[in-house]
Design goal:
By secondary structure, this protein is of the alpha/beta class. The chain is built from 14 helices and nine strands. This is Germination protease.
Length: 327
Amino acid sequence: MNLDFYKSNNINVDLAVEARDIVRGQIGQEIPGVVVDREKYSNTTVTTVKIVEDYAEQIMGKPRGNYITIEAPALRDNSREAHQEVADVLAKKLSSMINLPENANILLVGLGNWQATPDSLGPKVIEHSMVTRHMYNYAPEEIKPGMRSVSAISPGVLGITGIETAEIIKGVVEKIRPELIIVVDALAAGSVDRIATTIQITDTGVSPGSGIGNKRTGINKDTMGVPVIAIGIPTVVNAAIIAQVTLEHFLEQIQNNQALVQLSQNLNPGLMQQAISQVLAPFGGNLTVTPKEIDSLIASTSKTVAGGISMALHPAIGAEEYTMYLN
């Protein structure tokens, strides 16, 4: 699929690694102003994409900054060891983005709708996160060296609260004055293989709802006044992408059948796009798909993400003590 397909279907690409692959395929070369680095672990592959120039920012549709992608197919498996490795890698990479003193005040924000399972990753992560800000006032004896002041909120979505998410967060920021905000949100992927197997960390913030076609006020350093790190996991894929990939695989399969080659030559991209648009017309072309086991995937991945965040923010707390501090 080329860049025109995404534009014509108004599909936003949340993952920087996917945006890079799409653009690179379109222009036929590496993107000027993009630096890529890869690391391999036993159960994970980490790709760091750095957007450092205006041209790359414009063509990829992503602001300048660092995008760390942790690819871990083992996240779908019921393997405690694999999930722990992913949490460790997440903690390591998140720590590399945090340049704060031990006494820093951090705000965790779980974006999303807790009433819609594919969109509930953020609130679920908050449920499992280690918050400590209240302890500084009411139980200072429980504070250990290496623990930071962490507070957390799940502000809901505009359709539930009637208030822009960014407005809620801004109000909290003005009251508690954190030095850093970490937001967690569900993402939209460009491949079904990435659902619940990929974690993206970026220091550019987030635009709530952008992956499903909504345009909301951004949550970033410009709007909040403090650095914002965003962590996300894909939970849905646009149906147009699935339809297009299916047609492309079908055309590849019939290339060896001479009787069908002529048919495939008549299936130009315009006809394929028209067929997809007609099928998705009842949904305005904006239909997203999620697996039926998304509830269990959200439950497991939210614990992994929460564990990685807590290890990064509270390096003195071991895994055996972590649960003691959960409400």
